[in-house]
Amino acid sequence: MSLRVGVIGVGAMGADHINTISTAVPAARVSEVYDFDVDRAYAVAQPVSAGVAGSAEALIDSSAVDAVIICSPDHTHADLAKACIAAGKPVLCEKPLAVTAEDSLSVVDAELAAGRQLVQLGFMRRYDPGYREMRDALRNGDIGEARMVHCVHRNASSHTSSTSEGIVTGSMVHELDIVRWLLDDEIATIRVESPVAEGLRDPQLATIQMRSGVLVSVEVFVNAAYGYDVRCELVGTSGTVSLVPPNPSSIRKAGIDGVRVRDDFIGRFSDAYRLELSAWAEDALNGVVHGPSAWDGYVANVVAASGVASLATGGRQNVPLDPRPNLYS
């Protein structure tokens, strides 16, 4: 059986997902797409023999769609995810789940009312082989007990994180999720600072304390100029484990010996996206959610909101979290 997937939003992310499904996910095929740019929708749909829906809602309700991927603008995510829940269809929603914590909680409430999980968040780093090896090293006792985590997240330039607050909610949010997953722990407090006082406050540095006491540093620099660069080191009581950049070749030129730095996140995490989509398709066919849940999306929004408040006030902020509902245990 092949999962018939409808994709809402066929910009760079949506188009890449469509290509990945058609070339590397045998369990699924793209059956319908929707985008407000009709010409773009047809251009993306034609090579994979997919139909073009007249609206996002029509795609969700279509009898030709078993499951949905949401890649539309952030402010549409919560309502579309709730429409998928109402239709009883599994959905992979790109981050964030919503613009505000309140809106993301409404998605959680919709799942709780339905009595089943249908929503998975697009926190693809959880599927990256490097991050998975780091998590395994900690769980297997290879580096002892965790004490600190150091994260770096740099972009050559960014159009999606064009506000100081957006750097936290749109870029840093990946680190806010991945440290919870790596450590199997919750964030207790966060402080976000920047050496830039006015205008776009970029770069930013977050210092985080987990509930267990583990300390985390997160540097985010969305206009670092030189390329896309993600690093992470987990420091334990008997060793450390770090991401090794995926550099297939080195070059000597003009007196420099080095490796190329990627300039886009899709290329850097292509394996993670492929593994994410493959796992999601299999889970959707089996009626389960094993990936990042709606609750994880809600938690990311709550932590990000505390980070934004810290950036504005300069002080450390507590992260107020309600107990995790049994549905997500």
UniProtKB/TrEMBL annotation:
Q: Name the GO terms of the biological process aspect.
A: inositol catabolic process
For this UniProt entry, which segments traverse the membrane?
A: none
SUBUNIT field? Homotetramer.
* Residue stretches making up the GFO/IDH/MocA-like oxidoreductase domain: 131-241
Q: What are the record keywords, sorted?
A: NAD, Oxidoreductase
State the HAMAP family in the record: IolG
The record, for InterPro entries, names: Gfo-Idh-MocA_inositol_DH, Gfo/Idh/MocA-like_OxRdtase_N, GFO_IDH_MocA-like_dom, MI/DCI_dehydrogenase, NAD(P)-bd_dom_sf
Report the protein name in the record.
Inositol 2-dehydrogenase
PANTHER family per the UniProt record, alphabetical: INOSITOL 2-DEHYDROGENASE, PTHR43593
